[in-house]
Amino acid sequence: MYGSFPSGFYYDLTAVRESGDFGRDTIAAWGGHVKSGWKFAELPGKPELSFEYSYASGDGDPEDGRRKTFSGVFGSRDKMYGRINLFDWRNLKNSQFNLEISPLPKLSLLAEFHDFKLAEKRDGWSLNPSLYRDPSGAAGDEVGRELDLIATWETSITGKAFAGRLTVQLGACRFWAGNFAQKVAADKNANWFFCQLQYRIDIQP
Asked: Is residue 153 part of a domain?
């Protein structure tokens, strides 16, 4: 569900319910995502502030005959779970804050901050749920926090043979390990940098 208003406020809601059978277990899982924000189109740089929250149920008792761990339905979407791809839409609570600004007509700058927690602390971390798991729940649910900084530049290419649009994207990301990650996985933080080039060709009839 999506909606927007003349004031610049907008919202985007997604809810998914999973049911059926998995071996001898009955599937009873769900996931949700909500995003809301404001676009200030009249201000210099057209800044946009937004908040997102992603939830995916977990399973605290794998022996009770009910499979409650949600399995993501949209594949890998790093915009919802962090650019380093340490998470999936599974046993997750992610609070996300975004700020985007366009200082130049073809340039946009984006900052994303994520606070990652487990929905069920006795279930596993989606990075490797069978290995990174504490059945007792003593490790807690604080997996970590992540800051992503992305710059995107777009320009049009004209010409008879290869007219199209070129997009260049640069990113710098850092993940700070929380208590759960330190106790169950590793007590090290992570850095990730990337450069992405995309060229879309306009095919003329």
From this structure: no
